[in-house]
Recover the amino acids of this structure.
């Protein structure tokens, strides 16, 4: 069997790609996800079961040194946080149980700036993404859909995807609650300070309550909505927002590979969640989180997964709301 060495991800989803090319790839990816995972009509293509919370974010002095972004200057900023289960339910008639193992659960944070701008930080609990390019992610989904033999063949031909999958397989126990999970941005971003100097980082949200799984004996007996319903019993929920600083030689375009563990983590601030949000997703409001919705002081990497997410999420919004409303309204 020929083994292709895939250490440099190649993808059509680059910053230079035309909008039409990106949209075509995003459509293909969205259709694949819908077909393989069985996404419900009229809802988010993935991550449809969720709960929206409200709170504040307050940056540390170190954050201000690293970035000139408005919300990183130290004044408290209003946030909403949407927690979500990742995959659609295997049972098309239901939202699916919160106890699903190996589900990529999400924590999407929206920062509301005083001048009306918004910026998003969209994280999930897998420690790496299972593929380095949108095409490999799509092809992995297709192979898994086809069956064990096709999956084995695909992984043998794509050792990088196999290696990332092995890491993802080490996590996946259902959490004790939303307050006891660690979330990762996976994609890299460049912080830019007041002098214009840059630093590549990856984000991690670390709960003050520690990381705890649901005891295995409860995996089959827990209430199917224990995460969504139980979140109000955990309030206030607090996280440290951590940034891992890349060294010059670290790659910034492949979310399927972690940076060396000895890279410094910096405490950038605290998120405090105080209650359920009653303002978003009411009266036709469309709430959408886009990891490319960035403000001055934070720049995107050329990671093809990051670039395609924007297009896929817009397509998901179009399908679930029929709206192509401007990003700033979301
Ligand atoms: C090519 C890879 C990916 C695909 C195809 C994909 C697909 C999607 C789609 C279709 C949605 C629904 C968007 C909406 O209707 O608002 C979504 C939401 C989400 N994705 Fe991804 N995603 C990918 C990668 C990632 C990565 C790398 C992360 C995190 C590190 C992530 C975290 C999330 C979260 C947290 C949400 C829920 C947002 C919310 O609560 O509104 N996704 N994703």
């Amino acid at each position: 069997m020929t083994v292709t060495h895939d250490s440099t991800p190649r993808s059509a989803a680059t910053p230079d790609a035309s909008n039409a090319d990106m949209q075509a790839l995003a459509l293909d990816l969205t259709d694949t996800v819908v077909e393989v995972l069985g996404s419900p009509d009229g809802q988010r293509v993935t991550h449809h079961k969720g709960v929206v919370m409200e709170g504040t974010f307050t940056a540390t002095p170190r954050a201000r040194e690293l970035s000139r972004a408005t919300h990183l200057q130290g004044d408290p900023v209003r946030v909403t946080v949407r927690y979500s289960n990742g995959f659609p339910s295997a049972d098309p008639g239901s939202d699916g149980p919160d106890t699903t193992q190996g589900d990529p659960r999400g924590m999407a944070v929206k920062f509301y700036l005083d001048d009306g701008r918004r910026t998003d930080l969209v994280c999930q609990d897998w420690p790496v993404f299972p593929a380095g390019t949108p095409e490999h992610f799509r092809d992995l989904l297709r192979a898994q859909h086809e069956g064990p033999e096709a999956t084995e063949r695909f992984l043998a031909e794509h050792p990088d995807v196999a290696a990332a999958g092995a890491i993802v397989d080490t996590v996946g126990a259902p959490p004790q609650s939303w307050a006891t999970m660690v979330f990762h941005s996976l994609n890299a971003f460049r912080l830019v300070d007041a002098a214009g100097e840059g630093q590549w980082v990856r984000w991690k949200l670390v709960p003050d309550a520690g990381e705890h799984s649901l005891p295995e004996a409860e995996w089959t007996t827990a209430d199917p909505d224990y995460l969504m319903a139980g979140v109000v019993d955990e309030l206030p929920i607090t996280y440290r927002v951590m940034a891992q600083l890349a060294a010059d030689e670290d790659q910034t375009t492949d979310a399927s590979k972690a940076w060396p563990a000895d890279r410094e983590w910096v405490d950038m601030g605290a998120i405090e969640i105080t209650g359920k949000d009653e303002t978003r997703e009411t009266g036709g409001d469309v709430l959408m989180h886009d990891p490319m919705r960035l403000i001055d002081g934070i720049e995107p990497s050329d990671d093809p997964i990051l670039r395609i997410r924007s297009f896929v999420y817009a397509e998901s919004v179009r399908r679930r709301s029929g709206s192509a409303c401007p990003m700033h309204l979301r």
Summary: The CA atoms of residues 238 and 272 lie 5 Å apart. The radius of gyration is 19 Å. The first helix runs from residue 19 to 37.
